[in-house]
Specification:
single chain, alpha/beta, 340 residues, globular, 8 strands, Trna Endonuclease, Chain: A, domain 1
């Protein structure tokens, strides 16, 4: 025997390699999670010591105070890096924000917690924490979602009770409406305001940044293809982007429009959905869903265009720049203060 794997045993061997790989990845993930948990707990304990010192000495350690300056300098001299004034301030703030260690997520890194600490609103912070865990966002992805005001964009489509549930549980994908956003923020395409672009150029920009586009779409989307051809009666039509949603188990068709979405656009998407329902979906798939993205939409004409359509069809706006978060915060405040 030379030690070579025979053809008959090759398949079990491939499964063995795969099984070992899965065990290794899980072990590494747990090890990293354990290190993160220890680091966060350590910083939380340091924050607790600082706060208790303040309480005994009746000293307030606001950011930039003499206490934080002195602490930062002395800790760096004795223990090395990791004790910048900002970091010491965040340790203190972590304890003040969450004085019960058991309620702190062990799945998030210190860098995640630092980003979350920048949010003053408890509901908003709770939402992003839940989403980080559910969707395994990197710190970069968390920053992007915070900058695009994801919480406010989703929350403003709900009532007061729905907003509170969103903060407590994160965004749960249970119905097709749970995945729809209005507006979608595509600032990562880096198309300057006022720049004249074509639908083809917009589509190519999205393909060049497909990972960020998938992040904006949300959990469960997998990319299937672009310019999917539909042939009917000797005519050819093309769906701009096709996705499949793993949770909802259905195809999702996206058409990109420059300017306002028209009733004709709605009719065309409805035709695409009928075709996919009959020709592309498997027997165990749910009915396909269509999203038309435009820079503007006339709610009245769209409402009439959608009337009588049995397919799941949605019209949303997209923006090429970050939303005004202060405006969204004010709208959400009014929603939450409204007496039911």
């Amino acid at each position: 025997m030379t030690g070579k794997i025979s053809i008959d045993s090759k398949q079990p061997y491939i499964h063995l390699i795969s099984a070992i790989g899965n065990i290794l990845e899980e072990g590494r993930r747990k090890a990293l999670q354990s290190v993160n948990q220890i680091l966060v707990k350590t910083y939380w304990e340091i924050g607790k010591q600082i706060v208790e010192f303040e309480q005994q000495g009746k000293e307030k350690a606001e950011y930039g105070s003499a206490l934080l300056d002195t602490l930062s300098r002395d800790l760096k001299l004795r223990y090395g890096r990791g004790f910048s004034r900002r970091n010491v301030f965040n340790m203190r703030r972590l304890y003040l924000t969450c004085q019960n260690w058991q309620t702190l997520s062990a799945e998030l890194s210190w860098s995640h917690h630092v980003e979350l600490l920048s949010l003053e609103d408890d509901l908003e912070r709770s939402f992003y924490e839940k989403q980080c865990i559910q969707e395994r966002w990197s710190v970069r992805e968390l920053k992007r979602q915070m900058n695009t005001a994801l919480f406010h964009r989703i929350a403003l489509s709900r009532d007061k009770k729905g907003v509170l549930e969103l903060a407590q549980k994160g965004q749960l994908i249970e119905t097709t409406k749970d995945i729809i956003r209005d507006p979608y923020v595509l600032e990562f395409l880096q198309i300057p305001e006022g720049h004249h672009y074509s639908e083809k150029e917009l589509e190519q920009k999205i393909m060049d940044h497909i990972q960020l586009f998938l992040l904006e779409l949300g959990k469960g989307f997998t990319f299937v293809g672009r310019q999917h051809r539909i042939s009917l009666g000797g005519n050819h039509y093309y769906v701009d982007l096709v996705f499949y949603h793993r949770i909802l188990k259905c195809f999702i068709l996206i058409d990109l429009k420059i300017g306002a979405v028209t009733p004709q656009d709605v009719g065309q998407m409805n035709m695409y959905l009928n075709y996919f329902k009959k020709e592309e979906s498997n027997s165990d798939d749910n009915p396909p869903l269509g999203i038309i993205l435009g820079t503007e939409k006339d709610n009245f004409s769209i409402e009439y265009a959608l009337g009588g359509i049995t397919n799941q069809l949605f019209v949303s706006k997209y923006k090429l720049y970050l939303p005004d978060k202060k405006v969204l915060q004010q709208k959400l405040k009014e929603l939450l203060e409204h007496k039911e």
